[in-house]
Amino acid sequence: MDGKAVERLTAKVLELTRQPRNERKPGFRDWLQRLESSCRFQTREFRGFKPGLQVAARNDRFVSVIIPAYNREKMIGRTLQSFLNQDYPKHLYEIIVADNNSTDATREVVRRLQSGSPVP
Predict the structure, then answer these.
(1) Which of 41, 48, 70, 95 could be 100's S-S partner, Cβ–Cβ 3.0 to 4.6 Å?
(2) Which pairs count as long-range contacts for 101-110, CB under 8 Å and 24+ apart, including other chains?
(3) Tens digit of pLDDT for each residue in 21-64?
(4) What is the pLDDT of the chain when averaged over all its residues?
(5) Closest CA to 83 of 97, 73, 71
(6) pTM (2 d.p.)
(7) Whole-angstrom Cα distance, residue 84 to residue 119?
(8) pLDDT given for residue 43 in this prediction
(9) Cα–Cα distances in angstroms (integers) from residue 64 to residues 1, 87, 90, 112, in the given order
(10) If DSSP codes are grouped into helix, strand and coil, which group holds residue 67?
């Protein structure tokens, strides 16, 4: 959705919400709540995936990232590498992999990354 589309949608929502309550159609409140929820989701999605978007954030809080895993040997390396490549200060986060007794090489992949070895 481009900037003009967002402006049009915003104008329409404001127009509809300014209607007197007795003129609103049945179900309007439900529709408005769904729209608000969708807009929140779209905003999170936009902030999360648009390259170059600047989002104000405090980088002084310690964060724990918990990754549940079960038989994810093919994916866990890429997942962990993605976290390790973040520009968040390394001393302000920890990554915890909660392995649920995997029967594949999930644990070995995690150990290789811990030791600094490359993961294929």
Answers:
(1) 70
(2) 101/70, 102/69, 102/70, 102/71, 102/72, 102/73, 103/71, 104/71, 104/72, 104/73, 105/73, 106/69, 106/70, 106/71, 106/72, 106/73, 106/76, 108/73, 109/73, 109/76, 109/77, 110/69, 110/76, 110/80
(3) 667 677 766 766 666 666 555 544 444 445 555 554 556 788 88
(4) 75
(5) 97
(6) 0.49
(7) 13
(8) 47
(9) 33, 15, 11, 20
(10) strand
DSSP string computed for 8-38: HHHHHHHHHHTS-GGGSPTTHHHHHHHHHHH
Asked if residues 55 and 47 have their Cβ atoms less than 8 Å apart, the reply is: yes
CB atoms within 10 A of CB 108: 13
Helix (H) or strand (E) holding 4: helix 3-17
* Tens-place pLDDT, residues 62-73: 888 899 999 999
List the structure tokens of 21. Answer: 């309550």
Three-class secondary structure of residue 49 per DSSP: helix
- The letter for the amino acid at 77 is G
